[in-house]
Amino acid sequence: MSRVQKAILAILAVSASAVWYVILSAPPEVLTIYFFDVGQGDSALVTSPDGTQILIDGGPDDTVLRRLGEVMPFYDRSLDAIILTHPHADHVNGLVKVLERYEVGMVIDSGAVYATGAYKEWERRIRDKHIPHVIAVSGQRMIAGGDLRVDMIAPLESFEGASRKNVHDGMVVVELAYGETSVLFTGDMEDDLERKLLYFGVLPNTDILKVGHHGSKTSSAESFLKAVSPEAAVISSGQKNRYGHPHEDVLVRLEQLGISLHRTDEEGTVVLVADAFGTYTFRGK
């Protein structure tokens, strides 16, 4: 073999090694969800394999800004979508702050009327910044980046312009699915809406459940838990909160059904990392 041939083979060998190194060292295609510790409230950041970022609820205050800063690059001031499950303060207040600081591709909510200063400010900022506004209704589907599917489970009818005594009636319930892994976000859903969704047969089986209403006694009935049959659950609540969340009855039901539990009041921000083949892990931030 000539010196030229040997040199060519050496170059090819190095090139092949470089290709294999790139393949083996490439970051895995995973879905990451940060269930933020925002005290007594809900907020979660969903990051798809291609970097699409969806924020679900914003907690009661500007703590969400600090949590976003902890997991997003300092130069990144954009979110592809925000989903507001309902307009109570412990879900919407932080989102008003987010709209001040971040560019947002679209917002999704029920469109219900709710006469509080924070919710009116939420609506005003959406209008002033000309952010596309989608009214959530069961049956809608959005395909986000990286093969992330976003399905609206509730509300079952449009609540646009509607005023209800109990805003939980118009709760936005959403399932995220990436390959064989699915996560059900229930906002502050309580047992009356659970029964309604059971009756209409729209509840999916899911791998991970974000427990409704911070684990209150009026959420997560046994019939509901058996219908969605999660393997794991996450409860977002504040330490030693005055509501007694999560309630002992809910904790017992989850344990009796063999559902593993993660809690922001005990663990801080809970991080879910999942691939498209149904494999997932939880870890602290």
Automatic annotation (TrEMBL):
Record's protein name: Metallo-beta-lactamase domain-containing protein
Source organism of this protein record: Candidatus Ryanbacteria bacterium RIFCSPHIGHO2_01_FULL_48_27
Domain of life from the UniProt record: Bacteria
Limits of the Metallo-beta-lactamase domain: 40-239
Pfam families recorded: Lactamase_B
